[in-house]
Structures are given as C-alpha cells and as structure tokens.
Amino acid sequence: xxxxxxxxxxxxxxxxxxxxxxxxxxxxxxxxxxxxxxxxxxxxxxxxxxxxxxxxxxxxxxxxxxxxxxxxxxxxxxxxxxxxxxxxxxxxxxxxxxxxxxxxxxxxxxxxxxxxxxxxxxxxxxxxxxxxxxxxxxxxxxxxxxxxxxxxxxxxxxxxxxxxxxxxxxxxxxxxxxxxxxxxxxxxxxxxxxxxxxxxxxxxxxxxxxxxxxxxxxxxxxxxxxxxxxxxxxxxxxxxxxxxxxxxxxxxxxxxxxxxxxxxxxxxxxxxxxxxx
Length: 277
Hints:
The protein is an alpha/beta fold. The chain folds into two domains: 5-174, 3-Layer(aba) Sandwich (Rossmann fold); 180-274, N-(1-d-carboxylethyl)-l-norvaline Dehydrogenase, domain 2 (Orthogonal Bundle), CATH 1.10.1040.10. It contains 14 helices and eight strands. It has helices at 21-32, 44-52, 61-66, 78-86, 91-94, 109-120, 134-140, 151-161, 176-204, 209-216, 224-227, 237-251, 256-266, 270-274; strands at 14-17, 37-40, 56-57, 70-73, 100-103, 125-132, 143-148, 165-172. An eight-stranded mixed sheet has the order 3-2-1-4-5-6-7-8, sandwiched between helices. Strand 1 (14-17), helix 1 and strand 2 (37-40) form a beta-alpha-beta unit.
C-alpha cells in the first residue's frame, strides 16, 4: 500500500520514541501546548519524567504509534532508528495507514530512505526531520527542522512542529533533511575550531576575547557559533564528522578540511572554550 497525499492523517495526537535530552525537551513543549502525547524509552525513568508531566507512558514504539498520528523518533544512531521504526515492536508494527513517522535522529540518508520504503508498504509516511540548533534550541523551543519527504506529510505536521521549532524547511525527498544536517554540522564544527584558534591568537597578541568578539561580530568574520560563544556543549562532533567523512568517501568527494577537523575537534573540551570567555 503506497501512501499518497490524501492518506495523511490529521495530526491530533503525537508520539515520542526516545526521551533523552532532546526528546524530553520536545515532549515538554508538546505537553505545554496541550498536545496529547504518548512516550516510550528503554530507560524507564526517562519516560516516567514525561509521564509525570502528563504524557501517556507506553511499553514499546509500536504501542506509541498505535496511539498517535505523528511519531517523533528521537534516538541516537542508525541502529536505534532501525530498531525503533522497523524492528520487532517498532513504530511500523503499530502504526495505522496514514500515520507519519518522523526520524529526528542524525543518521545516514539511506537509512531514512530504506525505512520510508518499509513504511510505504504499510501505508505509513516515514520522513526525516533532522534537528538543528542543538540542545539549547530544543530547550527554548526554537529548533530548525531540516525535513525530507513528501510535502503533504511534512505540511500535515507543521502545527505540531510549531510546539518546539520556529523554522521548518523541506529540502527534498526522504534523506534530504539528513544531508542538510550533515552540511550544517560541518560548518558548525569548522566555525567553532576556527573561532577558538583565532581568539587564542588574539589573546596572545594582547586583546582579550571578550573585547574581540563584539567587534568581530560586526565584520566579515561574524558567525553564529562565535555569537553564542560559551554555550557550546560539544556532544556530537565525533559522530557528525565520522558520518560526513563516510558519506563523502562513498560519494567520491574529497574533503580535506573535514579530515583535518575530526582530530582537532576530538581534542577539544568545553573547558577549552570557556577559557576564552
């Protein structure tokens, strides 16, 4: 059963698979906007926290999907996404035709495309909705959503997405959102490393970073990571850059800067950034 535009369900109930830092933030915003929310997480305490806030706690992704029109999959990696969506007890097992399953984890584009094919066989719309602007964006309800998939499915979700995002951008077919996220994060980590080295040099030459930054933000060196200096948590550069390098290799694209950047980011700690406040 191939889903079409007419088959997309009206989004009235939302499900959440994964209640970690990002998932919990999304869940809290949805509950604050009075969205009926069903949740599940392998860590019972994580799901229970949202349960105490008003969510319905379920035992599996399939149960969440059976109670939802939109399922947000906010887990860690490709293996967890495949399990949460297409594995035994996964969302596709419980989802009715017309349900939208949104892959919010940062994963390979082909993982999303493969699961979209499995979903299509069941009449379920699987889209990718990569989350940009990080944990602070999630906590503030100001995420940028980088989406890939049929336009009607993405449009159907916009009201629910507005609970935790200020910008929802469709880049193309399934997987395109993940491509945009990979490109975005290459630029993010590149800026952070360049900002660090530039400010270290400025300090060594006698101008403190706290004096430099406001002036640099007025010039051609301005960039968002510099503007937000001191708030970066450095949780995912290794994963992001490993994925970027793998996909670049498969595409036959030489990315020497990314190759050099991976070990440079691996040696950084949050404290290195805080020293330049």
